[in-house]
Amino acid sequence: MAKLAGALILEAPKAPQRKRKSVVIGYKTARGTMFQGTIEAFLQSPRSAEYAGKVQLIFTSPPFPLNRKKAYGNKQGEEFSTWLADLAPNLKKLLTPTGSIVMEMGNAWEPGRPVMSVLALESLLQFLKKGELQLAQQFICYNPARLPSPAQWVNVDRIRLKDAYTHVWWMAATDRPYADNRQVLTPYSKSMLHLLKTGKYNSGKRPSEHHIGKTSFLTKNKGAIPANVLTITNTGTGDVYQKYCRENGIKPHPARMPVALPEFFIKLLTKGDDLVMDPFAGSNTTGAVAQQLKRKWISVEAKDEYIESSKSRFVMRKVDTNDKQRTVSNSPQSWNGK
Ligand SMILES: C[S@@+](CC[C@H](N)C(=O)[O-])C[C@H]1O[C@@H](n2cnc3c(N)ncnc32)[C@H](O)[C@@H]1O
């Protein structure tokens, strides 16, 4: 049993790089457990019953079907959307009555054609239907630092624009899952600060039919309510996880999400020591952020090597401070992640 700063590692198996049929504990920290195995195996195991009705937020980025296969072997086409949707009913059983599922998914393009795949959208619809879930709200996660792609259509033929966002879908079993937007306020824009200072703006009826009262905009709250377009720059090469991988000769996870993304939704959709789960944990960004925000967490990951390197996130006291400084902003105002 090895003791690490911020983490207590109970088991640290050096297992082969294959998908297991059973689920075992990869490691534990004071607030969370990483399960080693597939989510299918987890959902069929007694562990699943143990957590039924207890998870406040399932936050994840599933292995999306790409034209070129990633290291972790993504499923393709309809096989993918059916596989994902089949998980929905059992994932839903894990939720508390006011719990949420938030899923991030990138865009894909038809192989060899300047045509977008609609698979992400089909996957969402199938997931909602099979899980009998509502779409509480749709978000866009915009990455201004994203390299131009698909390169052939954007850079060479110049017939498409840079593909620079991912979909983030917030789903729930009820119309009113727990949420508190006061936890994710952004700093006021310069123009709003000016308006608050001068007290001057045009009240009355707007062309949009909105009626703006004489004092509607004069109350200074703790910040502005963010829009559902999150601007998160993820250029990261200097975060602690990446550093650890470099120093130890480990190949970093190829599809890590920026820290600011789970941070935003954990703050918005959970409180106190609520339980957060990531069924496709990868480098365990979700678990590490949950731990830092003093939530409880469970994560499931199929590949042993990703589990092994994800431990580094708990060795350091602070999670990805560099990464967090680079991320931050929410259109139109800035989200400072505080
Ligand atoms: C897009 S990555 C998640 C990355 C993660 N959000 C992060 O920040 O590191 C998807 C992960 O799902 C894992 N995976 C694929 N199939 C799985 C399954 N059936 N059960 C559990 N994990 C699986 C892959 O190994 C991969 O690490």
How are the strands of the largest sheet arranged? 3-4-13-12-5-6-8-7-11-14
N-end to C-end Cα span? 35 Å
Tally of distinct domains: 2
CATH topology value of the largest domain: Rossmann fold
Mean pLDDT: 84
Small-molecule binders here are:
S-adenosylmethionine
Structural classification:
alpha/beta
- Sequence of secondary-structure elements: EEEEHHEHEHEHEHEEEHHEHEHHHE
For this structure, what is the CATH homologous superfamily of the largest domain?
A: Vaccinia Virus protein VP39
Summarize this structure briefly.
The protein is 30% helix and 21% strand. With 338 residues, the chain is an alpha/beta fold. Strand 5 (55-60), helix 3 and strand 6 form a beta-alpha-beta unit.
What this model shows, in words?
With 338 residues, this protein is an alpha/beta fold. The chain has two domains: 288 residues, 3-Layer(aba) Sandwich (Rossmann fold); 35 residues, no CATH class. The protein has twelve helices and 14 strands. The strands form three sheets. It has a ten-stranded mixed β-sheet with strand order 3-4-13-12-5-6-8-7-11-14, sandwiched between helices. Strands 1-2 form a two-stranded antiparallel sheet. Strand 3 and strand 4 form a beta hairpin. The radius of gyration is 21 Å and the shape is globular. The two termini are 35 Å apart. The N terminus and C terminus are likely disordered.
Which helices and strands occur, and which strands form pairs?
Blueprint (H helix, E strand, L loop, with lengths): L1 E3 L2 E3 L14 E5 L3 E5 L2 H6 L1 H6 L3 E6 L16 H18 E12 L12 H13 L2 E9 L8 H6 L8 E8 L17 H9 L5 E2 L5 E2 L16 E3 L8 H8 L12 H10 L5 E4 L6 H8 L3 E6 L2 H7 L1 H4 L5 H6 L3 E2 L7
Parallel strand pairs: 4-13, 5-6, 5-12, 7-11, 12-13
Antiparallel strand pairs: 1-2, 3-4, 6-8, 7-8, 9-10, 11-14
Helix pairs in contact: 3-4
S-adenosylmethionine binds next to helix 1 and strand 13.
